[in-house]
Amino acid sequence: xxxxxxxxxxxxxxxxxxxxxxxxxxxxxxxxxxxxxxxxxxxxxxxxxxxxxxxxxxxxxxxxxxxxxxxxxxxxxxxxxxxxxxxxxxxxxxxxxxxxxxxxxxxxxxxxxxxxxxxxxxxxxxxxxxxxxxxxxxxxxxxxxxxxxxxxxxxxxxxxxxxxxxxxx
Length: 169
What we know:
The protein is mostly helical. It has 2 domains: 10-102; 106-167, no CATH class. The protein has 8 helices and 2 strands; from the N terminus they run H-H-H-H-H-H-H-E-E-H. 12% of the residues are buried.
C-alpha cells in the first residue's frame, strides 16, 4: 500500500484532469474558469491546489467573472495563497479579456435595440465604481460610427454638457 500524500496536489491528479495537459489535448474552451485562473497563478497554498483555490475564490463572487474583475486587489489578497503577484495576474488577465471584447469592430454593429446598445456599452461600463456618460454615434443605417465617453462622475451621478455632445459630431 502506498503512503497517502499529506495534501492532494495537481501532480496527484490523472493526467487527463490536469489543467495544462487538458488545455493542450482538448483546447482552452474545455477548461472551467477556475482551471483557467489556476493556470495563471500556477500554484495554490499549502493545503489546496490552485484549481481548488480558484474554485473557492469564484464561489465567493457567485461564479461571476465580472464581480471578480471588480474585486479590489487588496480583497483578493486576503485569500491564503494569493499575494500581490497572483492578484495582479488575475486582474491583468480579466482586463485583457475585457479589452479583447472591446476590440470587436464596433463599426459593424447595427444598434437598433436596447439589447444591442447593452452589448455595445456593457464591456466598458460593467466594472466601474463610478458613473460615466457614454454616447454612440450612428449612421443613417443605425451602424455604429464611434462611441465616446463624455463625462465621468462620482459614485451616483455625472453631468454632461449638451455642447460636448454636439461638438463631437
